[in-house]
Design brief:
It is a single chain. By secondary structure, this protein is of the alpha/beta class. It has two domains: about 220 residues, D-Maltodextrin-Binding Protein, domain 2; about 200 residues, D-Maltodextrin-Binding Protein, domain 2 (3-Layer(aba) Sandwich), CATH 3.40.190.10. It is built from 20 helices and eleven strands. Strands 1, 2, 3, 6, 10 and 11 form a six-stranded mixed β-sheet that branches. A three-stranded antiparallel β-sheet has the order 8-7-9. It has a two-stranded antiparallel ribbon with strand order 4-5. The chain is globular, with a radius of gyration of 21 Å. Belongs to the bacterial solute-binding protein 1 family. Pfam families: SBP_bac_1. This is Alpha-glucoside transport system substrate-binding protein. Keywords: Signal, Transport.
């Protein structure tokens, strides 16, 4: 992540307000042009073709994506219909797959589902222009993320930046602290000084187990490095590995200090997302909250102004380099229709990504979508960190493993890390539980 010595307030300041406003309001502008990249759909030769695209997006997210689809329709003559899957993508797709009536393109919320549906023979590999567009516009890491057994199925369309910590500048000013660049500075200088000044440093979102996996992933990626991160995601090293234990010990620097968390341990475990955001900005009970760029929407709902009352800084470096962890959505083909591959080629193009970027509420993993395509400075900065991280950016680990281990409430990583938040005194025991759960999920 570049330019870490820049004053962190200069990064999100007023521009972040624009990011939240654009993300929350329906975009009124028409899709932009942008430079065409490899694989862009061209020619109006799909007249009469009808395609169905399904994703979880609703509201403004859906409206903006439909504007991107409108551009494809204008270029090709195809008719594209959007259908929302709701939050449970599997519940939507399962019956359609069984009934032989899946959408032409499904946009999956996690890479693990690519493997699951590929194993069911429910997906068709990328080919032709779609495959070429992916190779031209995406790094090797993103290409591999959408592949199963050396067969490429998926295109990462939309990213969520999960390596930022939000804070109240008023609280920082009162305590006389600055945004930290390292983990030690976060714990000892920033959090410690806030606590000494009578200001609770963190609101934790421990009742939402997925937020705890995000904490772990950032610490682990920075401390253990990208190679070990990949090996752990693939379960090529066990969760009892020293690197896992060390990451848990590092988390205990915060999780083991009741005075650093709003409501102490009990409060940390019982507070969900987005209540933790409200505790920082609406109720002003704490100075910081960790979660992704989408926190901006919750800040506004809390009555605060992003860029004025709410700022953010990069997740501090635990090891040699700060982490860049992203979540996101992957488009796959579920039909053999020619228009399906053409649509995927278009979605993988810089033109589609740039058009979407101009509408707001969006980050692209496409390496040929320039940072200055985004409408506000805050999003431009986030996009640039993804571009600059290059091959070291990593996808949310818990979404790469089987969902029974990484994405199920009350079990697996969620439950084990919640228990560790309650009592982080035995990281070795927590690592053993993680290994057992990972092994059970692999069976």
């Amino acid at each position: 992540m570049p330019e870490h010595k820049r004053n962190a307030r200069a990064v999100p300041a007023v521009a972040a307000a624009a990011a939240a406003a654009v993300a929350l309001a329906a975009a009124a502008c028409a899709p932009g042009g942008g430079e065409n990249g490899g694989g862009t759909a061209g020619g109006g030769d799909l007249d009469g073709a009808e395609l169905l695209v399904a994703a979880k997006w609703t509201g403004v997210e859906q409206e903006n994506f439909e504007q991107v689809l409108d551009l494809f329709e204008e270029q090709t003559g195809a008719t594209v219909t959007y259908d929302s899957t709701g939050e449970d993508t599997g519940a939507y797709l399962g019956p359609r797959i069984e009934g032989g009536n899946p959408p032409d393109v499904a946009i999956l919320p996690q890479p693990g589902l690519v493997s699951e549906y590929a194993a069911q023979d429910a997906l068709f590999p990328l080919e032709g222009d779609a495959e070429a567009a992916l190779a031209e516009n995406y790094s090797d890491y993103w290409q591999e993320l959408g592949s199963v057994d050396d067969q490429t199925y998926g295109i990462m369309l939309k990213a969520a930046h999960k390596s930022i910590i939000w804070y109240r500048p008023e609280a920082f000013d009162e305590a006389g602290v600055e945004a930290p660049q390292t983990w030690d500075a976060l714990v000892d200088d920033t959090a410690g000084t806030l606590s000494d000044a009578g200001i609770t440093p963190f609101a934790m979102c421990g009742a939402s187990g997925w937020t705890l996996t995000d904490w772990f992933e950032n610490v682990y990626l920075s401390q253990a490095g990208p190679e070990n991160y990949d090996r752990l995601a693939a379960h090529e090293i066990e969760w009892t590995d020293d690197s896992v234990v060390q990451a848990l010990e590092t988390l205990a620097d915060v999780w083991g200090e009741e005075s650093l968390m709003n409501g102490g341990t009990d409060g940390a475990v019982q507070t969900d997302f987005p209540t933790c955001v409200t505790q920082v900005y609406g109720q002003q009970q704490a100075a910081m909250v960790y979660e992704a760029d989408f926190v901006a929407a919750n800040v506004v709902e809390s009555g605060a102004e992003v860029g004025v009352d709410a700022l953010a800084f990069p997740f501090p470096a635990v090891g040699e380099a700060p982490p860049v962890v992203v979540g996101g959505d992957i488009a796959v083909a579920m039909s053999e229709d020619e228009g399906t591959q053409r649509l995927l080629a278009f979605l993988a193009s810089p033109e589609a990504g740039t058009t979407w970027a101009e509408l707001g509420g969006y980050l692209s993993p496409n390496g040929n979508v320039p940072a200055d395509a985004y409408a506000d400075e805050f999003t431009q900065q986030l996009a640039q960190t993804i571009l600059d991280a290059g091959e070291d950016v990593r996808y949310d680990l818990s979404d790469q493993v089987p969902s029974t281990f990484g994405a199920t409430e009350g079990s697996g990583m969620w439950a084990i890390l919640q228990d560790f938040l309650r009592d982080p005194s035995d990281p070795e025991a927590a690592a053993e539980r993680l290994e057992q759960a990972a092994s059970d999920a692999d069976e």
